[in-house]
Amino acid sequence: MSNFLAIATVTETLRQILDAAAAESNISAAVATALRPIPGTVGLPSVGVNLYLYQVTPNSALRNADQPSRRGDGTVLEPPQIALDLHYLLTFYGKEQELEPQRVMGSVLRYLNSRPLLTRESIRNAKLSVSVLAESNLDAQIELVRLMMMPMTLEEMSKLWSIFFQSPYVPSIVYQASVVLIRGDEVTQPALPVRSRNLYVRTFRQPVIEQILSQDPPAGEISADRPSVVGDTVYLKGRQLRGDVTRLRLGKLEIAPSEVSDTRITFQLDMPPFPAHSLRAGVQGVQVVQHARMGTPESDHAGNASNVSAFVLRPVVTAAAVSISSHVVDGVTLCTDDITLNFTPRVGLRQRVALILNEFNPPADRPARAYRFEVSLTPPRPSDTSVASIVTRVEEVVAGDYLVRVQVDGAESPLKPGPDPTNPIYFEPKVTLS
């Protein structure tokens, strides 16, 4: 890297190289200057070559190679650098009838073609000859500055010369000096030396969940069709499920499973592993998250994550009814009752809850009666975000026994069959309204 004197150092070094090239043209008094190519400029050679820096552009190959120069807190990590290409116009002067401009041009082209680099020695000579360049460190730049002749069409050359107002054209060529690296002078904050290094090579193993199964503990049937409720054991089947550290993510919760293998993960819908009162009925998205153990001492780092698979956690409800009033219409008793619903898991106050009543064991000569009521949730205390019990009032319901179901965010509580396997009817939970 070089400091802010790099551009001026390149110009003076190139001028001295051109001065040597002009001298080899065997034309007496042929010299090289670095001035604006406008007639009347003091010092412009009567015979020789003039060097003029007309454009500076970012180097296309290295403009994005600069590493991050600052840490997240804004402190300097590495001084920033800028990579530049310098574009020079070389104009040639002398007696046209003696072809001096062309002779000097030929000498310059031969010289630069055989010496396309600014050597460290030539840069040091330029620094010694010009006192203001003494602090330049261009000669310490790792990559040497290369000189390249750039092709210019007649249209491009006319546009270039148009910037020199009322200046007559003289024979000219364009050279590019590349690359010049200028480094900032910001003071870095040194870090302590590294005591040890860890190298980790890992193959890409994407965990995939293929199926979710549920089991009623301790030894019930494992099935994908069984409704999942609190207390169940859930099995995730798939491939490449085991990592250094395997966790399960359900919503905003991350838990440790009870058993992990490459093809199966087991966890309980209970607490633990879930925090108290954190489970909610409804659709649950589950994802396998694998953390990598790295560092000294080892700590968890972000690793691979599986696809998101879903299952429905269904609420379990018990109910009790308290009669408020009743009246008879056309021989039918209509009741108004308060029904207390007890939920497992607790119901969040932002969840949608509906109560469904179906007549239990209706007579065969008519359809069974059924009712649906939307339930409003009122917390016992303003600070509560969930409730375990709700009292809701039902009105104008025909007296009788009813099976009770609730829907929480669309997840419906299951009904239990009766004790007689030969008579497969739902038996509970139920309430009696009178």
Which secondary structure elements does this structure contain, and how are they paired or packed?
Layout: H1 6-23, E1 31-33, E2 48-58, E3 81-93, H2 100-114, E4 117-118, H3 120-129, E5 145-150, H4 154-161, E6 172-183, E7 208-215, E8 222-223, E9 233-239, E10 245-250, E11 253-255, E12 259-260, E13 264-268, E14 282-294, E15 299-305, E16 309-313, E17 316-329, E18 332-348, E19 353-359, E20 370-375, E21 386-398, E22 400-408, E23 411-412, E24 416-417, E25 426-428, E26 430-433
Parallel strand pairs: 1-2
Antiparallel strand pairs: 2-3, 3-6, 4-5, 5-6, 7-8, 7-9, 9-13, 10-11, 10-14, 12-13, 14-15, 14-16, 17-18, 18-21, 19-20, 19-22, 22-23, 22-26, 24-25
Helix pairs in contact: 1-2, 1-3
Overview of the molecule:
The longest helix has 18 residues, at 6-23. Helix 1 packs across helix 2 (100-114) and helix 1 crosses helix 3 (120-129). This protein folds into three domains: 6-183, no CATH class; 208-313, Sandwich (Immunoglobulin-like); 316-433, Immunoglobulin-like, CATH 2.60.40. The chain has helices spanning 6-23, 100-114, 120-129, 154-161, and strands at 31-33, 48-58, 81-93, 117-118, 145-150, 172-183, 208-215, 222-223, 233-239, 245-250, 253-255, 259-260, 264-268, 282-294, 299-305, 309-313, 316-329, 332-348, 353-359, 370-375, 386-398, 400-408, 411-412, 416-417, 426-428, 430-433. The chain is rod-shaped. The chain has 434 residues and is mainly beta. The mean pLDDT is 90. Helices cover 12% and strands 42% of the residues.
